[in-house]
Predict the structure.
Amino acid sequence: MITLTIDNKTVEVVKGSTVLEAAKKLKIDIPTLCYDSRMKPHGACRLCIVEIEGMRRPVTSCTTPAEQGMAVTTTSAHLERLRKTTVELLLSDHPNDCMVCIRAGSCTLQELAYKYGIRENRFGGAMRDHNRVDENPFIMREQNKCVLCGLCVRVCEEVQGVSAIGYAGRGFEAKICSPFEHDLNCEFCGQCVSVCPTGALSAKMWAGHPRHEGVELTETTCTYCGCGCNITLHSLGNEITRVSSRTDNHNRGWLCVKGRFGYEFINSEDRLTTPLIRREKGGALEPASWEEAISLVVDKFSAIKEKHGADALGGLASARCTNEENYMFQKLFRSAIGTNNVDHCARY
Amino acid sequence: MNREITVNVCMGTGGIAAGGEQVMKALKQEFEAAGIKNAKIMENCKLHKVGCRGFCARDVLVDVTIDGETSTYQYIEEKMVKRLVQDHVVGGKPITEWLVGDDYHTFHEKQTKIVLHDLGKIDPESIDEYLGVDGYKAAQKVVAEMTPEEVIKTIKDSGLRGRGGGGFPAGVKWAFCAANESDQRYIICNADEGDPGAFMDRSVIEGNPHAVIEGMIIGAYAIGSSLGYVYIRAEYPLAVDRLHTALNAARERGYLGEKLFGTDFNFDIKVKLGAGAFVCGEETALIASIEGERGMPRAKPPFPANKGLWGKPTIINNVETFANVPPIINKGADWFASIGSEKSKGTKVIALTGKIRNTGLIEIPMGMTLKEIIYDIGGGIEGDKLFKAVQTGGPSGGCIPQQYIDLPVHYEGLQSVGSMMGSGGMVVLDETDCMVAIAKFFLTFTQEESCGKCVPCRIGTKRLLEILTRITEGEGRKGDIELLQQLAEDVRDSSLCGLGMSAPNPVISTIKYFRHEYEAHINQKKCPSKTCNKLLTFFIREHQCVGCGMCIRACAVNAITGEKKQPHHIDQDKCIKCGSCFDACKFNAVLKE
């Protein structure tokens, strides 16, 4: 363990921790924009700078390893001046359209602008023009709002293992794009959307729905597969408008394309809400009650078993079921029906 | 008559650019032609390809040595070769009007050459010639007779500091790296020289590549590394070629590869070409580039000596630093420490450019004053104009005004006046240089070369440049100087890497020493140096105009009118202030104010 002091408070952290992690342990708030504890530190936004005794100049706390006996100061007139200038510079190259931005209210840059009270900007000047037509079904890109925090690049490489996102250009014209500006080779998992601190990346299907007003949040579990990722449904009345996932759950906020974007079936008119039974040969499928449907299956299964034996029956379970559900399923087939003919779709 | 004849032709990049290859070819032809008449001359005649000797302004330089008598010729062109061979080589009479003057000798006499010692004397493509000047003796001594600790102690005692800009003591850095437990350590030579106007590292690799390789072998032995890299710009094709030639020759002789000098020490060097990004000269960006990542710097700490290439302890030193190592081993730490000043030992190679008579590559003992460099070695200001300032350290450095002309040039001296040693660029400015425009020039460069990773550098340098641009265009606002100062300080203090930290230096130093020029641009809308065209008005002085029409032809917007042999006139509404008429007029009739 390592002991250091931050703002005159002593804290003990494991070796290998960063100064920022140590500060978090003390519940000291240091502003960040490019930091995400789930990824490697980047040190680009320069907001988490701190002063450390014996170091010539401020260093970023997210990248600096904590060391025994370090004396850290997280706030001073000088640090706050530098942070304010950084936010002001970011805003000088950022569209001033928070009113209509899909991220308003959940935008880190907006919060920083508010925190530092930046009403007027000393650095008006040229702004980037990188918005381009981008045809993909899921992700909305507004590159003029990009702060180049690199979170999308890192999540795609470190978490998703896809590396569909990279950088191009230098200086003021540096931008986020597919590597070498080739065609996008993307899984559309939307991890990048989930980590973007501004309105640069959002989901196309979020557009047109309320951002916060009247939106109800419901914690639940994704039903797409046995992983059981925790998700948060954003709903307005009976309509699901967005799916997100909290970072403090077992899936750490990461979802796949289905979990994050595959929610439209819930409000789909084509969705089955009751069992259907074809009562006459050649007739149409008609809605039925669960009791009626289950009774029918029981009757038919019993008849088959009586006539042809239990091994004439077999069960194929879905990957969307949990382990517990699959356990129950094989129990049903082995104990109740009496056959080992049981399998799972994920084997195919 | 059996005379000993040697002809040396300057074939560095400067020499080749000035026509060295044509001169060489013509020499061969002329010797052949002369050889038909007198075959004995051909027999002893040796055409010798040598590297840069520093005095690029006088290229192509040719030494003709006959029986130990050397005559050095300057500005030699292909068409002059015939007479040179006929009169001097055949006729035995040196052509006095083509010989270099006294200033050529002053240029060299004032210098102390360690790194450049053998440049221009040995053939960089011949390992035997390097061996002839005690080459690889130091590496052999180190590997066969010394412990790594002894090597590090020698380098520490010598006081050698990093020549790439930082000035960090090399021996201390090596010791840090060696102290890390690791299965592999790497040693990297940073040859990604990118400062505008800098050609020190290029010349050293082009002129004496083996010295750099030998320095790397010694460093590798000291830190316990079996693999080194030279990261060199692809835009240096001649240096890259000569480096490869040297590496292959060293491998053939067993100076690289396995079991060096008959010991168990293995070491080899790979060459990695840079794609021309200035920021890749920053050590962490350079490491990222070698790893195949985009050349973006990483935050320090951890420092490369602890966690560098592929996460392993890594030493990165500049070309010149490595080239200093073999002489230190050969002649001893005390010898090296006896040269230079108290805290800056040894010499510094400087690329001397700008408004100066003798531009070129020089090597001075640390502590020599600016005055000695500019007036004694450099021969003073071109065209007898007034000295205004000297910009040191490239785009990362600052401008030093006249009042500090007696300042000693070493790390502390330059830092004390807000500039830096950097990699050793020195641009001399005269009274016609506008300091706001100079700051703008360097910011244009750094702004374009920023990698874009961190906010202060990416957007901050852009905003600095925008403010400077509007000042030079007459759009400067009250408060702009203060705004520039504040932003420059903030960019300096909060940027991620050395590029952003030092990019504001030209702004900070010019405001510090030449604030009045900024004020004149903003308040009076005047450029005191008459450089910023948008702030100038062009007139034709009637009594001096001969009506030749040159300005009319030069004007792209037809703003000038006038009959032949009658005074011309500029229509101020049409004039775009490009300055073409001023340049075109041979009678000083165009006035700019």
